[in-house]
Write a structure and sequence with these properties.
154 residues, mainly alpha, 2 domains, two-stranded antiparallel sheet, 2 strands, globular
Length: 154
């Protein structure tokens, strides 16, 4: 399903995250700028991305379930096909990025590589005070992959 309205929401989410990261990039501490308290929109943008993903993945799974009933194939075959499509879409570039991080020896990556390889880097939020700038953003893909893994089974 292609809904142009969702593209507009994606733009809003991207801009929210970019504004948040721009403040950090230019040295602002995130909450205060020239003695004004500014609520930055980054967290809302990330949440919007997650809501959009949930909506779109649910639609994909519901359409696949209806198609499987029509074709009289098992639910498990639909789930396997879903997993295969997700893997082909995400794994190659994700693991290429991890390989580059390993070869470049980005600070912090070597001591936490297993968290990234297994898609649990979002758990590093609990364990660490800060993020590695080179790979820290991959936490959101970990959340997405965990959702992709569990949602079709429910």
């Amino acid at each position: 399903m292609r809904l142009p309205q969702l593209d507009g929401l994606r733009v809003v989410a991207v801009l929210a995250v970019l504004v948040q990261h721009s403040f950090g990039f230019f040295g602002f501490n995130g909450d205060h700028w020239t003695n004004l308290t500014l609520p930055l929109p980054g967290p809302a943008g990330v949440r919007l991305f997650f809501v959009l993903s949930g909506f779109l993945i649910t639609d994909i799974l519901l359409r696949a379930r209806n198609e499987s009933a029509r074709l009289e194939v098992t639910r498990w075959s639909v789930v396997k096909a879903f997993y295969a499509r997700r893997m082909l879409r995400i794994f190659p570039l994700y693991y290429l990025a991890l390989a580059v991080a390993a070869v470049a020896s980005f600070p912090g990556f070597r001591s936490h590589w297993i968290w990234y390889v297994t898609y649990f880097s979002n758990a590093l939020f609990v364990r660490l005070d800060g993020w590695d700038r080179a790979t820290g953003h991959l936490w959101s893909l970990s959340v997405e992959e965990q959702f992709y893994l569990l949602w079709p089974l429910l």
